Amino acid sequence: MPTRIGKWKRDVAIIGAGYTPFGSVLETPEIKGMTYRELLSEAALEALKNAGITPKEVDSLLVAHYQSETVKTQSTHAVAAEWLGLKTKPSVKYETACSSGASGARLACSLIASGLDDIVLVTGAEILNSVIDEDKEYRRQPAQRVPIDPAFQFDIVSNGFDQAYFQPIAFNLLGGLSSFPILAYAKKYGLTIDQVDDAQSAAAISLRRNAARNPKAYHRKEYKNIAKEAGFNDVMEYMRSSKYNPFVSWPVRTSHLYSVADGGAALIFCADEVAKEYTNKPLVNVEGVGLAAGLPYAKDPLNIPSEQSALKQAYTMADLDPKEIEYMSFHDCMVHQHITATEMAGYFAPGEAWKAIIEGRTAFDGDKPINTHGGCPSMGNTYDVSGIAEIAEAVRQMRGECGARQINPPPRVSVCHALGSGPTFGVTVLRRRNG
Amino acid sequence: MEMEERYVDKFFGYLAEGKLMGQKCNTCGTYRLFPVPVCSNCQGTDLSWTELTKEGKLLFFTITTMPPVRFARFTPCAFGCIELKEGPVFWTLVEGIDLKNPEKEFKRLPLNVSIEIREMAGNNVPVAKIR
Question: Which of A17, A90, A206, A339 is 20 to 30 Å from the Cα of A191, by its Cα?
Fold first, then answer.
């Protein structure tokens, strides 16, 4: 039976968006020593301020939370409700891993479109880089955190996939999700491995250029400067170096993958018809949302049924012509998505993306900008929180609030594509209707 | 609709016996490797267990150095996307790829593989061997 694609019964806008600095609570100065609830509160309060409202106006709360292993708390919606003064209002914890921005948008808009709520706060926080040291006194506060073993961290990520049928056999989810699509792309368009390697590295360089202009990004030192310090005049020679940038899942290198981070993010959804009571800023409407999940097995890694379905749901709902898209975000824990998924989404014509990326067209000042905040490799990957932050960045770009990395003119139509554990594909179509 | 099957136990039990058992949907004819109560293609619930031939094609592969902890002792290794003769696609360990010349091997794809059952990290799992 085909997937039913409906429409909202009343329009919904995002009127507030924010995120904390990303990094490590053990060492990043801006968030050092912060707890889970403090990261969440900072993000939520920033989004509320950005919307021009207070918690009083919020009708309900949706809290995304994926990785309880490192926060050691399960019912985090209750923690969030307490910290945000919302303990008499409905709150729910949810997650679809890194696509929790799209699923949060679908849930929040549904609550508003149904008439149940006028204003919904979607927020979340994660601490992924460290774990509470249970060898010490467990309940001692503030909790003592120790760095997490990257191998253990990767093991936890693997819990996001079916432990019966997927994980025991398809143990290398990273290889499957990162390498097979880019190899399929190379094969489809007759490209060499060197060409797709360079295209992925160019995407990583572009993201770092963006991040260098975002004071909240985890990694802000541009690759051209890193390369110079390592004795390379040509940044691409540095990126091709097996010493500095080795293959971890051929033909995918370290710099082509995400950097795990801690942080918080939040969005304020509001019924379009009442939004003007709260804000004079341009309204960014959520016009389409698509979601689909299930094991990623497909003969053609560039044609995964759940990804195609999520795109179709969102585009149909929004009556979107891909030619209208002026900004795209990806949950780019693997940067090949800039090459492969941009074409699936219609942001680039088939076979064109890899070259456009090498030409620098996807940077904040290019004609096809992607992930102006720095994306998963440079902004940092906070899983579900990144999914929310990616939509927050799109909203703030569309309202011209991004400072040194602002796209000019601000985009009118954005598409946020997210790939989360499961895998879960989420697509959100945003359109600025005024201003 | 009652669920009489114990799918996971049965699937891994067959693997322990050396059998690669999947399902055929009696409504749309789709084969799948990992048994579930509802067909992903047509949402039909009339599915039968069927033994799959242990033959297929290696469509893509990577060389992995960063697996979850319990698979660390198997790396570096080739890890591939396999299409079975009956149609199901899955990912698993691949034996017989020259890890030092991945680009040369990539150009030879697709390659015929046979499926063998191996013990990996406490489970019997189907792995692919280049024929």
Answer: A206
